[in-house]
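Format notes (please read before filing issues)

Several people have asked whether sequences and structure tokens are stored in separate files. They are not. Every record keeps both together, in the order shown below: the sequence lines, then the token lines. Line labels are part of the format and must not be stripped during preprocessing.
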Amino acid sequence: MGELLMAGPAWKLVAKQKILPNDVILLRQEVFPNGVVNRQDVATLLAIETACYEKCPQWDELFTKSIADYIVFAEGEHGVIDDVQALWIKQSLTRNGLADTKNEFATIVRILSLAKRAPSSVVSLALDQITHRIYASGANRRTAANVSEDARAIMIDLNKIIDVAKKFSIHEHLRAVGLSQLLDAPETVDESQEQEIALFYRM
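Then the structure lines:
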């Protein structure tokens, strides 16, 4: 893999590990004056995203919108994600299949919302993030009187995927609905019920 070449403002952000609104303005003006136009630009955004622990909302918008719009509209057939792009999305926006940041996950969801055609593997990738969050947070094991903030946040993200999944894959749409039922159960879900749901939806 070739060395990542970044403009000065991008390197400075990586070094200081913080992105402020003025930094985003500078990036738009000096690093991406024409927007994201190639995979090198995507790699630069990913390097900044990974390195910086403090990020402003303006960065979130720049990162998510720029990468998703580039992948869906500037690469390959307009509005269509092919299998090669799907693999690149997985390799770029996840590590071992899991996104490290909320912006990487949001970018996958935005790609799905914008694309008119995409392999079901992209929907599956988005749902893998939700499945991991459910079990990592324990959001599947709570009573109706104690719905965690994690569960609420996960349900918001899951509903976004449910809305777009049926465009691409009825199986993944059903899987998304199954995860929603798992989160929305009125009582604590025990292990046998989890296994039954997982088997039915092949999670």
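For reference, the curators noted about this record: The chain has a mean pLDDT of 87. Residues 7-97 form one domain.
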